[in-house]
Structure formats: C-alpha cells, structure tokens
Amino acid sequence: MLDAAQAPSPLDETHDPARRSWVASAQAAGTDFPIQNLPLGVFSRGGGTPRGGIAIGDQVLDLAAALAAGLFEGEAAAAAGAASGPTLNPLLALGRGASRALRRRVSAILAEGSADQARAAACLVPMEEVALHLPMVVGNFTDFMASRFHTARMGARRDPGNPLPPAFLHLPIAYHSRATTVRVGGEALARPHGQSLGPDGTPRFGPILALDFELEFGAVIGSANRMGEPIPIARAGESLFGYCLLNDWSARDVQRFEMMPLGPFLSKSLSTTVSPWIVTAEALAPFAVPAFARLAGDPEPLPYLMAAGDQAAGGMDVALECWMTTPRMRAEGVAPARIVATNLRHLHWTFAQMVAHHTCNGCDLRPGDVLGSGTVSGPEPEGRACLAEVVMEDGGLTLPNGERRSFLEDGDEVWFTGRASRDGFVPIGFGECRARIEPARPFPTA
Ligand code: CA
Prior knowledge:
The chain is built from 14 helices and 27 strands. The protein is globular and about 70 Å long. Calcium ion binds at residues 143, 214, 216, 248, 372, 374-375.
C-alpha cells in the first residue's frame, strides 16, 4: 500500500483519452501538444514583453490574457497570475497543487463543449508567430550521470573489466554545472575556444575540436526546501514540477585534459540547450513505470534512497531520439538522420532519488533549479546517446549519405525529440531541443 505522498500523481479527467479540444490542431496526428499535455512556457509576440503560456496544438494560450478575460478563479487564478510574468519561477514556487489546479481549469476551458470557448479563443496566439524564451530563471544546474549504460561505456576505456565508478551503484553521482549558460532551443551555438592537449602532448588553445552532444532529460524543481532540511525520498516527487529535453554540450578534448581530479569545468559550462516547454509531472503521470531493476548482485541502496512508491512508479516511459543534418546533407536534399533512439526507462536512478540525494546534506533546492539526468544511453548500439560512446566503440558515425563524423562539425544541426506513450492514453511530446553549430568567432586579443 502506497501512502499519498509516495503515489504518482493521480489520474483525473485531464488524462481522459476521449477528451478532445475545440482547437482543431490539438487533434492532429503526431502532435506533441494534445489537450492531455498542456505544457508551460514563456513567449513573446512582435517584440512584446515575455509572458507565460500553455501550448495546445499549434497555438499558445496567453495566460495573462485569459486571466484578464475572467477565465480563472480561486487557486487556478493564483496559478495563472503567477505564470503571467516573464518567468515561471513564481508559479514553480507555488508547487504541484497550483499546477494541478491550473491544469484542470485549462483542460476544461479548451475541451470540446466548453462554455468558455469564445472568450478563450480570443486568448490564443499562433505558435508560428511567437518567440519562445527560457521559461524560468535557472539558479542552479546540477548534472547527474544516471544511466548505467552511458557510465559503463565511458568507463570502459579506463577499466574494461570494472567500468563503473565505485559510487555508481550506491548513489546518483553528479557534478555542479553552470546555470547562466542554459539556453532555450533554436539558438545557434558558436564553436567555443578552449585548452586541450594536442597530439604531441603539449597544450594547445583554439576552437575546440571534439564538440559533442549529450541527450539528456531535465527536471525542473518546483517548491523549495530550506537549507538544513533534507527532502525525504517519500516526498521527493512533489519537488519535481516538470521536465524538458536537455542537451549538455560537451567539449571532449577540453574535458580529457581538465577534469582530473575536480571534474568537468569549461568543457561543460560552454552551453546547455533545453526545450522551451515544461511538460508537467501531472501530464506525465500516465507514463509512470517502475524504477530501473537492479541486476542480480547489485547492492541495495541505503534506505534514504529507497521508497516503495518510488520503486513502483518512479520511472517514466519516454522515447527519446536525436536527429541530425550536416551542411552536405541539406545541400543534397538528404533527409535528416536519426542517430540515437533511447528511452528514459534506461536510467538507473529516478529523479526522486536524485532529489533525495541532492538534499540529504541539507542543501536547498530552489524553484527553477534544473537537474539533468545525464546522457540517457540504453543497452543497444542505437541507444548510445552521445558521440563519445560511438567513437569509443565504432571509431565514429556513418551518416546516410556516407559522410563520417567523430564529433560535430560547423554547420551540423542536432535536435532531440521525446514522446511519452502508453496503451489507452493519448501520447504527448516535448517539442524540440535544437541547435546548429556555427564556426568559432575570432578570439579577442585586446
Ligand atoms: Ca551530462
């Protein structure tokens, strides 16, 4: 028997697969944003002030306009008000109760047969007319390394017989990454500069040579804990407001030279790209699955990381893909190549375990903090979710037009997609996490 705090979010009418929206595009085959999703983002139109919105089909519901139109009351009105400004941090701080109230009311407004259709239709903005912004101020960004398959492949060069670091099976390992360089997808990434060891073993400085992506999933923290007050595993799920796709860009040449013994620094802080919509924990409730099954002989984690509810339903079934084009592919009209296919189920640790571990020393998490899952690699070759794994095992990647890549070259474009699906429910998606690599800019000398 699970207690309420351990159980996943309850299913309600907002998850009903029979519910349809009067927004026609929300029913389009393959849409990421049916009425069962309702992710939150921050948008602007025509250079106006950024403000909160909810994606529905190919439209955005302007929450400030909907609030002004009198479409909300009570807790939902407080939530819509908190989401009406240029960042969603005030809404995140209200916690999951406010998120649930907002979701239920917006679902009712947008459902077929709603008496509010005419007033709500006036608050819709076509998605193609808006600019999407980073939806929250990210105060802290912690990047975990929660896939056993990624960790083992990366560790195999050091010790093929024992590739997992000593702590991996006992706790979710992580490092503190950089929050200021988190960017929303769609922006270009100019190849950064860095110091690494050249082939002759002497240091070189210049545009980085081994630029890689890491296909990750990001959790966005909602309500905060006070410093000194750990969040127990049984309550950790309530801290997880929602999720996005996350690309932890990595300079492998810089990383190899700099990271012993304090860990990655400039190789990771160069930039992180996230998808622009936060898919709420409520929207993902139907796609909960048991936590990753430990292998026979694996140690049992200590009790502060273990809760029955989290073990029963702390995982999520989300198919994740990475797609890519090169300048030559685009010039030749070659279709984009899917270069990674994996699933969030492959994570060895749940996000609730990451929260419980992160806070066990009293460290406080704040609304808008981001926890990265680490590269979500799976066991199969197509599940290798960064190029470093492919390079290590196969020497590089062969694209459909015969081009070879070890790492990313200028003009390459990479994007992630995610889709949660389960029989009996309407699938939901995450939008895109996309960036194109631009040539390095001249390094300033004066
Ligand atoms: Ca990473």
